[in-house]
Amino acid sequence: MPASAKPREGFGPFLGPLFGPFGGGLSMGWPKLAGGLAVRLARMGRELRAAVTSRRAAGRDADVATRRPAGSVTLVGAGPGDPDLLTVAAVKALAAADVVLYDHLVGDGILDLAPAKAERICVGKRSGRHSLPQEEINTLIAAQALAGRRVVRLKGGDPMVFGRAGEEIDHLDALGIPVRVIPGITAALGCAASTGLSLTRRGVSRAVTFVTAHGRDGERFEPDWARLADPQGTLAIYMGREQARAVGQGLTGAGLCAETPVLAVENGCRPDERHHWTTLGAMAADGVAAGKGPTLLLVGEALRQRRQGSGAAYAVDDLGAGHHRGQRLDHD
Ligand SMILES: C[S@@+](CC[C@H](N)C(=O)[O-])C[C@H]1O[C@@H](n2cnc3c(N)ncnc32)[C@H](O)[C@@H]1O
């Protein structure tokens, strides 16, 4: 249903002023929301929540619960970058979308799977700008659904892995808006496939841990190193490039061997995928040589055989992804 359709009864007074100033401008990306508009969006969100609360307080819970919005929200995992790695369900959801709110990590070609007339709204970091604050993203998703639109919230990788899906689902639940989640291939599994690395190599690694190296806003990054330093496990470290030295120091300090192999996969599953091999000890001293693209750190003895198989010594270097593509990989 187009944005111009009548908003559903009950929330109408809030949707008119919410959509009025944006019009088609939203399709140009979130920077248009900056400044006064962003503040206004946050205020509208508060008003929307207040409206729901006051209706409940007036004893009309049943009314709110039974009169579901005509629109819907689907959180869709876009995978690590290659459109071929989308699920069939993701492709169908995109094809049916009226509006797509997407992150900066969504790979090229994936947005093209939405209809040409679908509105596309970038809510992620772009060109050095910060992402739209999470609260404003929540408000925007809800407002679009309450206007009767089929909303696709498109996230890189899997929505439920370091994707802030929990906050969006909580917000939609509180407003009684139905939400569905379509999983995507998370970066760790995409990178394992593109590099030919079994993360649970038999007899070597008995666990895989997905961990972020990013503290919450303003918080210091201080994981439980002793728990992570398992010589029989593989670590997949998200958002780790900037913290690579701290990761190396923390893990070696907690007892992991300095010769433990590390692979930083930059732009995994994309045409410009790059591999940067090092060891924990070298990473503790020098960090990783990865560039600006999204980078996943894989750490563990499960990587050793493949690295040895490539015939080079442990050192920081680059191997183009094309190197592996199309090759038959000998792994379990
Ligand atoms: C906010 S997290 C989002 C993770 C995402 N939900 C997932 O399941 O992959 C972003 C981090 O994921 C990792 N990442 C995402 N896409 C990647 C890719 N194509 N190659 C390497 N790492 C990637 C990077 O560590 C990046 O900093």
Write the layout of secondary structure elements.
Layout: H1 12-19, H2 36-57, H3 61-66, E1 72-77, H4 88-95, E2 99-102, E3 119-122, H5 134-146, E4 150-155, H6 165-174, E5 179-182, H7 187-195, E6 207-212, H8 225-228, E7 233-238, H9 244-253, E8 261-266, E9 274-279, H10 280-286, E10 295-299, H11 304-309, E11 318-320
Parallel strand pairs: 1-4, 1-5, 2-3, 2-4, 6-7
Antiparallel strand pairs: 7-10, 8-9, 8-10, 9-11
Bound molecules: S-adenosylmethionine (SAM).
Residues 80-81, 105, 155-158, 161-163, 186-187, 191, 238-239, 265, 267-270, 294-296 line the site of S-adenosylmethionine.
Short description:
The chain has helices at 12-19, 36-57, 61-66, 88-95, 134-146, 165-174, 187-195, 225-228, 244-253, 280-286, 304-309; strands spanning 72-77, 99-102, 119-122, 150-155, 179-182, 207-212, 233-238, 261-266, 274-279, 295-299, 318-320. The protein is of the alpha/beta class and 332 residues long.
